[in-house]
Amino acid sequence: MRPAHPSPTQVRNRLILAARYIVAEHRPTVDGSCPVCRFAGCQALLTAQAYLDSVGAPPARGADIRLR
Question: Is the CB of residue 48 less than 8 Å from the CB of residue 19?
């Protein structure tokens, strides 16, 4: 049986995975714009990178996250 609420560690790990996914999805194209938002200086990318920096998340395994 699963606990009613995830532990703080589980929440942190899920947030790290979500931030890494956002970084991979919103990585700027060669012209510098976000492929999702279509803006340079994508706020989602900046926020996800800031979160990963603030929690000291280790780099993702491999060159980058593989999107399905």
Answer: yes
